[in-house]
Amino acid sequence: MISRRNFTSLSVLAVGTLMLNACSGKSNSPVEDASADFGLQGSGYPVVTKPLTLSFSGTKSALAPDYKTMALVQEWQKTTNITVDWQNLPENVFQEKKNLILASGDLPDAFFNTGLSDSEVATYGTNGTLLPLETLIDAHAPNLKKILDARPDIKAAITSSDGHIYTLPSVEELGLVQFPHMLAINKIWLDKVGLEMPSTIEDYHDALVAFKKEDLAGGGKTIPLSYEPGTFCGDIVDLIAALGGVPDNVDHRIVQDGKVVFTAVLPEYKKAITALNGWYQEGLIDPESFSQDDKSYLAKGKTTTPSLGSFVWWEIKEMVGEDRAADYALVPILTGVDGKQRASVANNQEINRGAFAITRANKYPAATMRWVDYLYDPVQSAQANWGPIGVTLKKDDKGILVQIPADASTSEGERRQKVAPGGPKIITKDDFSNVVAPEPRAAERQKIVQEMYLPHAANDAYPPVPLSNEELQQISSIQTDVTSLTQQKLAKWIVQGGIDGEWDGYVSQLKNIGLEKMIETYQQAYDRFKQNS
């Protein structure tokens, strides 16, 4: 074990000897680290004894001010003695400009909230635009190294297939994103038609039929069920599970018993879509479900006269408004046609790559790594995620950080975007017990997930696997064509029918596109990830 005193000596020594090989285009360009010229300290703060300025680019929330005006960012500068020239842009603007930034000779020193896809990280990592970070982590990031040593799954998630780490993680382990598609129903309408909360798929169907028959919105405006397929939290994956007998998610890619499965070619999936076509013919499904966006969908929950019998969203209040939220309740995981309850697990990740990257233009990689490691202190990570202590957070009598309620003029989400820069951070499940309490709405959702969904989880999520550049190239066009075909056929078969006559041709077309190769690639990457974690 290296003592704290010895760690300091080793870290300072490493700065003088570290040569970071960055391949710039056609030739290898060694990057010499000049952090020692600014008095880099091996431990403690400030990071450097002489003021140092670094330039960062990347994305930021559209509501966020210039990061340099944020109180938390100013505290980072004061503590580390490193000033950041922030060049972060709103997501849509950065996406338009990032290729130019990456291709130019005028790179920032680092990317914060990188906005880079896995393919871009693989490309710009292997060509030397982004520096490999594992040596820097070992020498200059004790907070992050401690976490990665204890959590090989996080390390595996950020390690590329070539063995290098090119970007640092953002982690928030609330246990919520795996079950975002929550089915809600109008309790007032259930009372009016004399029905109890549904517990089976047949009960639920009967409730929709009753809503339609009684036209409880009046004037033919009743919408028994509306949803938004293919979205983060608006799809009917659990109805497909109940009607067909197989869990599903928006990717149609699940993991069961260590095997990657594509659900949209299974007989169980066909059975569910056939049943949903019957529901559509009965007038139970909103015809606009396949064309509406978030804005128009959410507006349906806030019509002057309630018109929604049932919907899928991960927060009732967001869908129907605070005044009407008590009129709705979540439907439990329904017992399906085969007598089993199945909760579909989404592939949404709590471990995310791409929070931070250092470029070959950086003359001070060691100081930069020490700067970013400060953010991996659990208290700093909490503030990066929600905002500074004294503004959005305060300590309770047990020393746990808790939320300070936002004033009436702004929502919690809006306030968070204005005071918390996000970026590199790790808040683990243990941190939510020992460092920071989940915000109230998250704690409520945690309870729902633990009581209603987790006990019936029917598949594993596909983990945060970093695919190699070769793997990404192999499946990129296949994935696009598979997604396009499955979405097109799903909508057609539910609205118009015809699945029996077209099914065999559809499965053959997917095979011709390369579905089997795509699943084989995902399985290969999955096996590699599990071995490394």
UniProtKB/TrEMBL annotation:
One Pfam family linked to the record: SBP_bac_1
Region forming the signal peptide: none
InterPro entries, sorted: Bact_solute-bd_prot1, SBP
PANTHER family associated with the record: ARABINOSE-BINDING PROTEIN-RELATED, DIACETYLCHITOBIOSE BINDING PROTEIN DASA
Designated name of the protein: Sugar ABC transporter substrate-binding protein
Organism: Arthrobacter psychrolactophilus
Phylogenetic lineage: Bacteria, Bacillati, Actinomycetota, Actinomycetes, Micrococcales
